[in-house]
Fold:
Amino acid sequence: MNGFEMILPFLKPIEHLILDDSISEVMVNGPDRVFIEKQGFLQQVQGVSIGEKSLMVAVKNIARRLGDDISESKPILDSRLPDGSRVAAIIPPCSLGGVTLTIRKFNTRHFEMEDLIRAGTLDRPLANHLEDYVLARKNILISGGTGTGKTTLLSILGKFIPQDDRVLVIEDTAEIQLSQENLVRFEARREQNGLPAVAIRDLLKAALRHRPDRIVLGEVRGGEAFDLLQLLNTGHSGTLCTIHANSAQQGVARFTSCVLQSGVELPYRAIKTNIADSLNVVVHVERRPGRRYISEVLLVNSYDADADLFDYGAVFLAKQDRP
Structure:
């Protein structure tokens, strides 16, 4: 079994929602309260009933089927199916309204830049700019909130990497879709069933031993930002990565904070100087009901240590974001 068939026997009341290809996410907020995301819109599903006891049994069975556990002593489940779909749950007493279950489907469709243009995510001139940045080996950071399409955009930009480059992909969960011939994929592992964790930082530190021309990092979340910065400062240009943030400038600020989490004692302004020297382009993506779009593309020109300010060049600002 390699997909939803692993969990469907325990979720019969919402089986039709899980199997509906037009639904990207199924959210159960306790007994008898089911929500979905469909074509970019959140909506409650009426007439679907799944009781608290049945939901608890389902979540525990799903955890066991996925080789995990959820209980009063371990009330949080964060796992994934072999096809990449995510299954997350929290049970009482940590979830006050009853068992909470969220299933985020992995989209197996390989999107192209033309798909984003048709969807209104960006226009042709901006698409050409982004392709040029990848071909010119610019280091690109994609920022945005949850569900804004950061990974989809990352996968599409990664397709512009020339076929003769050796590409090394590092992720927490395998989601990035690339097809280069010389492609190596590394995936982090959390501590599970007595096996020690393998962190993104461990994989980044090992990356240089595998002669990458390009590094594609699924998401910057913590201290691995320092190791990534070290790679960028040693000539590994053309790197692509994502980060959670509410704007392009906040993406750079969060990258700075992540470097500080590494435990390496560096002056704050020295970190910012290194980021300005290494990071070239920040692309910010947002989500509105029914639509995902690029709202900012900024060039990181330099950092003024005396004024403690980054100098940005605005390549693109969506109309609603312009002063």
User: Anything to note?
Assistant: Residues 4-104 form a domain with the Beta-Lactamase fold (CATH 3.30.450.90). The two ends are 53 Å apart (CA to CA). The longest strand covers residues 291-304.
